[in-house]
């Protein structure tokens, strides 16, 4: 079982629709650059409808996912060539902050549009839970929306500070706040082109 097999299953009109949709979900599970749920939402947004709605949407979503995966694969190949040359020249450790094909997490077809979509998805989810009303997250969403007075650089510094602070054992709220802040930080950096 592999990504190619599941891609072929998505495209197979002889399979029941439910199995084709499960094959797409398997593909997204193996390659979910923005997280599973956000990647599925991004695919649905790009194809103009729910990916579990029609066969055309399903196939278009699978093709879009495969196109992003192909860009990432090309980036991996180029990165491997660069790292091999650097190691040959005696630079065994990559420089701090170097962008790799997997870090920061991004939608490889259009990183900034993917980051904007992911931040919006996080904001929508937080509005449902009340998390968006926390002062830090309110600042984040204002900066992303272009209405904030906080300078993006100072906000990135604050998020850096929060993600570097160790969470207390057993304190789930601190853990989830730090994890969310790290994801937001990563997407903000991609959005700004700081990667």
Order of helices and strands: HHHHHHHH
Question: How many beta-strand runs?
Answer: 0
Determine the mean pLDDT. Answer: 81
Largest sheet: none
Estimate the helix proportion, in percent.
55-70%
Strand content: under 5%
Question: What gyration radius follows from the Cα positions, in whole Å?
Answer: 19 Å
Count of spatially separate domains:
2
How far apart are the first and last residues' alpha carbons, in Å?
Answer: 34 Å
Low-confidence stretches: none
**Protein structure class:** mainly alpha
Number of helices: 8
Shape: globular
Structural notes for this entry:
By secondary structure, the protein is an all-alpha fold. The chain has two domains: 1-104, no CATH class; 111-192, no CATH class. The chain contains eight helices and no strands. The protein has helices spanning 3-11, 17-30, 36-47, 55-88, 111-129, 135-145, 152-164, 172-192. α7 (152-164) runs antiparallel to α8. The longest helix is centred in the middle third of the chain and has 34 residues, at 55-88. The chain is globular, with a radius of gyration of 19 Å.
